[in-house]
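Changelog-adjacent note: as of this version, every example in the card shows the full chain rather than a window. The one below runs 239 residues end to end.
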Amino acid sequence: MAYLRRIIYAKCNFFDELKLRASYGAVGNTSIPPYKTFGNLIGTVYAWDETPALGFGLNEAPNPFLGWEASSTLNIGIDYSILNGRVNGAIEVYRTNTTDLLLDRFLPPTTGYNFITQNSGSTQSDGIEFSLGAAILDNPNGLQWFVDFNISAYNEEIKELALKDENGNSIDDIGNRWFIGEPIRVFYDYEKIGIYQANEVDLAKAAENKVPGEIKLKDQNGDGIITADDRIILGTDVP
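Full-length structure tokens:
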């Protein structure tokens, strides 16, 4: 037991500073222009009997039920310093939950509008950051050389969407390319696997009604033809 106490004491003395900290906060975000709930007007020309006249009509679907989106963040970090402060840094992990997300949701052209701004769902973001700084040379009257290093990882996923199934569960909104469990912005498309060659005339015709020289798409479900069901999430812009 005495030996164990000496080891713990020696390791604690290795650090000049070792500080654990935690914080929690919540913030609201309007992030939309004033009067967005009323929709925008656009000038239009219509016929008054046989005389053209200038008028105005809605160019954007109004939404009187818009509300703030809210984000709550929990952050836990450790600050450390060794070698009389010549080496220092921090390790941080955080999680942000955002609800009532404000997004522009694209609408079918038959509605007469391109999109509507809605409180469209919720997301969860997790991240970790590591920073390290060192004073390689620190001569107050001479050469000074400081080095800083930082690396981080970040993950974002949609937890809930406004689009529901018959049981009230959130489902993917393919029209807006929003998918449960994926980041908000993803690349959803066909997977390109090459170019149809001269000896693939029949395959190109049967699968995609194409000819050699055109891009070949991957048949994800193996049914022998390329349809909208063969689209997949190819990636995201989340770093």
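Structural remarks: Helices lie at 2-13, 201-208.
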